Each structure stands twice: as C-alpha cells, then as structure tokens.
C-alpha cells in the first residue's frame, strides 16, 4: 500500500512569519552521498499501514542507514526522540543529508561533537522536528513552520537571478535556508531531506565565542 502524504485539516504547525552528555563523532561519514537533484522530488514508500510504534521504529532504521550524521545529532536530544516515538498524529522531520554535515567543515563538526556544547547541539536538533505532519505542498505555501526549537522561515526556491535578485520560482522550497531535495512518508511521519543543517546563526556564534573545543 502506498503512503500518500496529505493532511485533511489546516495545520497549526505553520503560518506566515513576519520578518522582524556524550561525545559523538560527526567527522566520519561512512555512507556515500550524491549531489541533490535540481528540483524537489516527492518519493512515496510502500507500507502495510504501520502503527505509530512501527512508524517510529522504521524511521529510526532509515535515519541510521541513510542519515547517520543527522541521527547522531538528533540522538543528543531525548525530548525530541520522545516526541517522534509517542506522537499519535504523526510528525515532520527535516533530515540533513551527509553532504550537509560535510559542508559544515571540520571546525563546526568538532564543535557539535564536543560535550561542552551538548546543550546547544540539543537545541540544533530540535529545529529539525515539527510535532505534526507538514507536507511539501504545505511548506511551499507557508511562510514558516514552528519546530520544537522555534520558528523557522520557509521560502519558495528560485533559479537564475544575480546575487539573490531576480530569478524565477522553480517549484522547490527552502526551510531555514536549506533546500528540500526530496520528501517521503513513513507511516504517519513525513521526512523532508534537506541539503543544509537548520540552525539559527545565534547558536553557531554561541559555540564560537563560549564553547570553543579545547578551551578552558
């Protein structure tokens, strides 16, 4: 049976936003990765109407196999994992691919893995989960989403243009500046693969200024 990603009610997880521990290693990305497609793609997975519990189990396996670096980050926040496991109505996960973590550079990878930055890393993980299903279409038509970490802006992706000016919408969508490269459903959980780690610049500045690995 095919999981069709639709939501029949108006979601409270998104709206128009006005513009106003453990030491884990993220540096060894064992899974191969490929360049993201040029346009957003919706993928559907086969399912036998899994229960909420099996959905959580399935998504954990998928993250282990396909998004191991993101799984390491998400595993640092037990509250987020509990939300994924116990959500009766489903949830949404923004899963950065391994290339997204590699593109951060070694300095930021070391900062995320440093146990002294665990509280900040937990906050980063929370920005990748919404407590209800939000489809790719809903992301496209919204101004932002409310994640467990806080509000994150959504925007329609444009191609062409010059230094951010001009260009035309190409049907894609960005979340927190990261491109959604594909979306799929796992039971009542919707996963959007993204090509960047979703995090406010403030969290990176906090790591830079106060939690530099090796400092006293």
Structural write-up:
- Helices cover 31% and strands 21% of the residues.
- It contains 8 helices and 8 strands; from the N terminus they run βαααβαααβαβββββα.
- Strands 1, 2, 3, 4, 5, 6, 7 and 8 form an 8-stranded mixed sheet that branches.
- Helix 1 (52-66) crosses helix 2 (68-74).
- It is globular, with a radius of gyration of 17 Å.
Overall structural class, as computed from helix and strand content, comes to: alpha+beta
Distance between the termini: 55 Å
Question: Which percent bin holds the helix content?
Answer: 25-40%
Strand content: 15-25%
Major beta-sheet overview: 8 strands, mixed
How big is the Rg? 17 Å
In terms of per-residue confidence, which ranges show pLDDT below 50 for 5 or more consecutive residues? 1-12, 14-51
Topology as H/E string? EHHHEHHHEHEEEEEH
Shape estimate: globular
Secondary structure layout plus pairing:
Elements: E1 41-42, H1 52-66, H2 68-74, H3 78-86, E2 91-96, H4 98-102, H5 106-113, H6 118-126, E3 129-130, H7 136-140, E4 144-146, E5 151-159, E6 168-175, E7 178-186, E8 189-194, H8 201-210
Parallel strand pairs: 1-7, 2-8
Antiparallel strand pairs: 2-3, 4-5, 5-6, 6-7, 7-8
Helix pairs in contact: 1-2
